[in-house]
Amino acid sequence: MCGIVAGIAERNVVPVLLEGLRRLEYRGYDSCGVAVLRDGAPHRVRSLTRVRSLDREVREMGLEGWTGIAHTRWATHGAPATQNAHPIFSQNEIAIVHNGIIENFEALKITLSGAGYEFASQTDTEVIAHLIHSYYQGDLAEAVRRAVSELRGAYAIAVFCKSEPERVVGARYGSPLVIGINGKESFLASDPLALSDVTDRFIFLQDGDIADLSHNGTRVMNRDGQPVVREARTLAHPPTEAALGPYRHFMQKEIFEQPLAVSKTFPRNSAFDASLFGATDPQAFAQIDRILLLGCGTSHYSALTAKAWFESIAKIPTQVEISSEYRYRETIPGKNTLVVPISQSGETADTLGALMHAQSLGQDHTLAICNVATSAIVRQSRWSFITQAGPEIGVASTKAFTTQLVALFVLAVTLGRARGYVDAQQEASYRSQLSGLSTALQGVLAREPQIIAWAHEIARTDSAIFLGRGSHFPIALEGALKLKEISYIHAEGYPAGELKHGPLALVTDAMPVVVTAPNDGLLEKLKSNIQEVRARRGQVYVFADADANLSNEEGLRVIQMPEYYGALSPILHVLPLQLLAYHTACTRGTDVDKPRNLAKSVTVE
Ligand code: G6P
């Protein structure tokens, strides 16, 4: 989703800004732009294509300057169109880039229109630009401070103005913004990754902060204009986006990285100990009597999968909530509830909002499961577990999902141990299952050629149903989500027992029904559900454990998985569904890594 890079350098800042945008591309965007101050006036280039094309245009125009701001935009207010792309100008004096959503922009627009401001875009951002212009009296930071005090909603902004050429001002509330410092140069970005080429020193701004960047240094003040101290931190360079190697897309590469990612996330022979989650007191989890899992999209499905583990292994009642619903719903808080926000990016606005909402209800046992150690959700949580998936570039999440599952399983066993429900023998057995997971996943990935053959068939349909039962129902949901995200085929995940209560009406000989069939206690029931589909001539595609005793017959195609892998079986079963979605999308020729309308890091509500 939207990305900001801005800075005041002692050289032409444009290459830094464009490299930063390139690094933020994976978040998803539909337009991009850059503006610099040159010869006493702001100049900009905006593009509806990729950052690569913007770069070409910028070079052709010879756009250069020491002070600049740049942006990738994921449309919210106003269609992806040049006039809505950022940077947005006010009166050719103020230039701004903005992430987030301003909820009261309509009311502000009316007031500003009344004051004579004309609007050239449909964006909420233009309201901020004009508001800053209206308050500007020679001090940009003060004008920004006054302007943002009128905003309701979420924002991260970077602004420059033509009268103060050696100054860039940033502000944030609800959307992330960091300062990067390199000697006399300073930069702003929505993610340190964008600046990893120029610095490893960062200041993470907090909600309400206003940052004033100039060659004289960096000042941070709060919304009252009082100076505040924000410590600079040295970060080991965030890993840059790796090369594709032998793979066609990042998604395929990331699917194949899963055996390594899961073993890094829980190294062999690790202890199931509270210290794994950053808790110094070994008794930290002892009084936990309820779990609340929060997440969006794929992270919500990892929560649904893990609910079964928390209840069966740790015997703790577990509630799963979609972040955007939970934060606006009346709920019953518990003071011994462990609140677990799950997020690959750690920046998802809804999950961050849900976490803060849970905290506002007095629930302060919070533990983030996240793939980014420096993210807002990790910083907002008391404890955390950082998954070791490495950077995930494909918008459709794969290795972030399976490593989240490993983390959640480890948490369930740790809690089970702390509560006396997991004895030493069971603990050893769980550890050995985790240790063998990487090899088991390699065995599943070896099925890719068979899956490609199925993908060619599925690619011809407009609709598909995914079925699973018990702990594999969320895997069916995830399989359907992957397929719709990247191949644009309509897909629904259902608990197989629910089939007869509605979706069976959709089954014809043209409807593919994909089933995830582990050899668990529900297998016989699942087989009956498969028969219900076959009786209506539905085309059944089953991923069945080798010991599930299912084989190819008319109307029934089976790919044999390894033997049943116990409680961790959902992790094995999601891989073929990822591959099926991936190869179906390739067959249909979609932009697999950057599917239309979607973003990797969703920093607005
Ligand atoms: C976006 C991504 C999904 C992800 C969801 C939640 O929609 O495209 O892949 O599952 O956000 O993101 P999070 O970073 O919180 O896991």
Descriptive overview:
The chain has 605 residues and is an alpha/beta fold. The chain has 3 domains: 3-234, 4-Layer Sandwich (Glutamine Phosphoribosylpyrophosphate, subunit 1, domain 1); 250-441, 3-Layer(aba) Sandwich (Rossmann fold); 448-588, Glucose-6-phosphate isomerase like protein, domain 1 (Rossmann fold, 3-Layer(aba) Sandwich), CATH 3.40.50. Helix content is 34%, strand content 23%. The protein has 17 helices and 24 strands. An 8-stranded antiparallel sheet has the order 3-2-4-1-10-9-11-14, covered by helices on one side. α4 (125-135) packs across α5. The longest helix has 22 residues, at 424-445. The protein starts with a strand and ends in a 17-residue tail after the last helix. The mean pLDDT is 93. The protein binds 6-O-phosphono-alpha-D-glucopyranose. 6-O-phosphono-alpha-D-glucopyranose binds next to α8.
Largest sheet: 8 strands, antiparallel
Number of domains as seen in the coordinates: 3
Attached small molecules: 6-O-phosphono-alpha-D-glucopyranose
- Helix content, binned percent: 25-40%
Query: What is the name of the CATH architecture of the largest domain?
Result: 4-Layer Sandwich
How large is the share of residues in beta strands?
15-25%
Q: How would you classify the helix and strand content by structural class?
A: alpha/beta
Low-confidence stretches: none
Spell out the CATH superfamily of the largest domain: Aminohydrolase, N-terminal nucleophile (Ntn) domain
Q: Number of helix segments?
A: 17
